[in-house]
Each structure stands twice: as structure tokens, then as C-alpha cells.
Amino acid sequence: MLVSQKKTWTSNEIGALILLPTRELAQQVSQIVDAFAKPAGLAKFTMISGLKKIDEDIKNFKTHGGNILIATPGRLEAILGKFPDIKKQIKSLEVLVLDECDRFIDLGFQKSVTEILAVLPKQRRTGLFSATQAKEIEEMVKFGLRNPIHLKLTDTALKSSSATGKIEDGEEIPIAAPDSLTNYYAIVPADQKLSALVEFIRNKPDAKILVFFSSCACVEYFTNVLKHVLKKRNLFAIYGKKKFTREKQIESFRKTTKSVMFSTDVMARGIDIVDIDWVIQFDIPRQSSWFLHRSGRTARAGRQGESLLLLTPQQEAYVQFLENYEKVTLKKIKIPTVTALKAEDLRKKMIKLATNDRAYLLDGTRAFISFIKFYTKHDCKVVCSMKELDMVGHAHAYGLLRIPRLGETKDRDLSAFKRSDVDTSTIKFQDKAREKRRLEEREKKALELEAEATQGDEDEEQGDEAKEKPRKGKKRSAKEIKEEQAKKKRLNKEKAREHKELESDAKLLQKFKKGRLSKSELDNLV
Questions:
Q1: Which end of the chain has the lower number of beta carbons within 10 A, N or C?
Q2: What is the pTM of this model?
């Protein structure tokens, strides 16, 4: 398209802009564009957040230029602000592409995209590509496109309205259904869910497997735990914002056979690894439309692929929901090697890890909290409600010593939870530096509380002294002063005793709340 518009492009003319939501996808597209741009005599330039410093990108672009600009929205917006000259070079733009444009909305890039669109020439060809439809995309279409034509790709051959050869607005273009992909689901009790994942991976020793979790905290925690369980497999993980680590993990997973990758939905879009055999969805996706994005990471380039969704008995209606609204059919399977005994053995291993290293204790709690928060925000509350969630079962699957106090757990019956007798305050970090910091912070906090208590006593004494104004017209005798001082001393002693009693009662009440004292024992001691 660019070559047909002009035979030659100077290095400072930007003819095409491709915006992508993540740096991994941008890098992948950049590699693909290379194969087409160089033979056509076009220069490509990539601006990706986290890859280089902004000033370095600006310097390189001034030196080398680029006819095809590939960028993430945040980085391009920042460069537009620091390097105004690029606005002149972008006036020659002929083509704008926004790939996975619904993800711009999910990741909070609407403002950046709006700022970018505002500086682009109005006369241009624009393509917005998305596998899902959202109301926000319609708003983006209104702002970013003139005379838009909406094309919908379908998996069934329909009559084309474009008999003249022209593409009509709203036309449905038939595409081949991915019949090489088979979707399965398995129903397992919540407390056996992690054990089911372990057993399934063990049952597929030669498969390359991608596992989706609901949050970064879950990916980090379960990766660290399962390294002690799946010792014969190469385990990789993508979580957090460390660019180098993410790229290295993706590349290692790409090159390694019989490996397992744990990931959030960052791997659900665009990242192309053709030899993934199985996709496992440990949790339902945040949006039901993401199910296809996740399962679509397998069965690529004509290969056979399979996906598995793990559900609890309370979530079984989700299968029908997917069939009705996402037109996805799932087949039910069983994982025969899953047993309650194996799940309990795995829970005990996780408890042991947490009691030996505070890092596991904190990571497990954080992962559980992130899962609960995720479950309050997914888009399928009709069939997967928080009220029906097996809170205790999931807490067991996460290997928790205590269920954290949350608004979502406040009114739940948690009596079936297998609470550990270990005093969690005594659990140390295996990392000596972290343990040293913990002890220092604990000591600092204790000193601050002590200082606050002392200051409170001083303020109270000063208040009492201020009230004791000398009586006008009458001089007190030495005897009266002595009696008053003795009375004050006695009152201060009583206050100190009462304060100690209150502290003691508070400690007993805390023990009662933690289950270390029964109601009758508390009544006898108070």
C-alpha cells in the first residue's frame, strides 16, 4: 500500500503506524514486518515501553528515521510530548493499524490512543482489529474512523452482499473454523483443584503446556510451590513488569520441549508459539470472551491442539454459558488420578513450605486475596457468583495456614477450614536479608507504639495539672498539699493497674478470636 502511494520514501517520512497493546506483541510484529519492509525498500522503527529509554529512542529516530513505526501507546505518547518534530514527520501518514484494540481499553490506554489520534492526519486508511466487541470500541471507532466499514469474520459460509466485488458495511466474511482445536472441561472439588492440575501435567509428560491463572500473585506463588512438586518438568512463568525476565521466559519456553509455562492473560493475545499442545485454564477468564483467546494459543499453524478448563461443581453452569454466548462447545473429561488423599498430601507439603519460610506464607496469602478480588470482578456472576464460591475449599488448595480477613470472608461459614496450630508470627524468612528487615521493622513498630503510649500518659498528666489552678484568696497548708499529692499518686497507680488489666483482657480476647481459648476459658480468665 505504501509503495503504491509513493515509489520512494525518505527516512524522515512516516507512512504507516502500527499500535499494539503490549511490548511482547509489538516485538513479534516488528520481526514479521522486517520480512516485508526490507524488500520494499522501507525502513522500520520500533518504539516500545521498557525496551530503551525515551531519550535513546528519540536520538535513534532522529539518526535513522523510519517509514513504518511500530509502537506501544504509552511510549509513543511520551515521545510526542518530548519530541514535537515527530508530529511534522507523521503528517505523511497513509495507514494506521490498531491491533487487539479492545486490549487498549482493558489496559487503560484510551487516553494515550486519543492523544495519538489527535495529531494524525485525518485523510488516512485506518484498521481496527479485535476478536471481541465492546461498547468502548464503538466510541473509538466514532473518534478514529471516517466512513467506517464493519466486517465480521464468521466460521460459517454466509451469502455475501458484495456481489459487485465491493465490501459492504456489516458484511460477514466466512473463515475456516479451527477444527484442529478441541476444548474440554473437568469438574473437580475446590480443595482438589491444584492437585488436579499437577496430576494432569504428570499425565502428559511429553506435552508443551500453557497454564492460565487469574493474577500475577497466583502465577508467582504456584510457580514457586510447584517447582518442589513437578521436579522433572521445565517450569517457566510470566508475571510482573520486568521486561527482561518476561522476554527471557517466553524465549526459553519457545525453545524448550516438554515444558510448562504459567501465565496471566498477557500470553492470551498475539504471542505466537506454534508447538503448544495443551492450554489449561486454572481459573475462569475475567471476561468470557477471553476464553477463546486463551484456548487459541494452541492448535496453531495447522497443528492439533487441546484446551482444558478446570471448574468446581459450583461453576458447572459456566459450560452452558460459554455455549450460549461465546458459541464454544466443551467436552467433559475426568482426570482419573485425582484423589482426595493426593490433594491432602499436596496441601501438607504447601503448609510445610509456609512454616519453613515466611515468603511462602505471605505469597500464598497474597495469591488467595488476589483470586478473591478477581472473582468479584469477572463478567459471569450469574452462574459463578461469589456467594456460591467454595471459600474453604479454595483456601485449602492454596495451602493457607489462616484465611485472611476480607469483606468477602466476613459473613462466611469457615468452620470446616483446617487451621494450622503454628504461631505465624514466629515464622522466619529463609532469606537472611529479608528476615533482618522484618525484625528491624517489628522493633521499630514496637518502639513507636511504646512512644505513643508514653506520650498519651504525659498528655493526661499535663491535663490534670492544668485543671489544678490555685484557689484565689486562700493559701493551702502543707498538710493539705501533702494529702492532695498522696491522693494524686494513688489515682495514678489505679490508672496504671486498670491500663494493665485492659491490656491483659485485650490479649485474652485476641487469643479467643484466634481459637486458642474456648469461651468458657475466656470467661474464667476475664
A1: N
A2: 0.70
